[in-house]
Amino acid sequence: MIIISWALTALLILLVLRAVLSWFPPGGPVFEQINNIAYVSTEWLLAPVRRVVPPLQLGGVALDLSFMVVFVVILLLQGVVASAA
User: Fold this and answer.
1) Which contiguous run of DSSP H or E holds residue 58?
2) Which of 54, 85, 63 is nearest to 19 (CA)?
């Protein structure tokens, strides 16, 4: 159970890292490499949810809700794993 908990925590960290890095313009090679790792590590999880949950249109801006859905589901799963341990 502890491995599952660690994996879920790692996913949460990668999701937050991806969100934070998306706020900044592209930088040097190290920044780009970290951004690519965060993107590749989380896109497999976000893409299926994005197909089901459309972005929320706020004027001329679209808010991607898939991130929030996945984040909440992972938090719920962590609670289930913690209570089972």
Assistant:
1) strand 56-58
2) 63
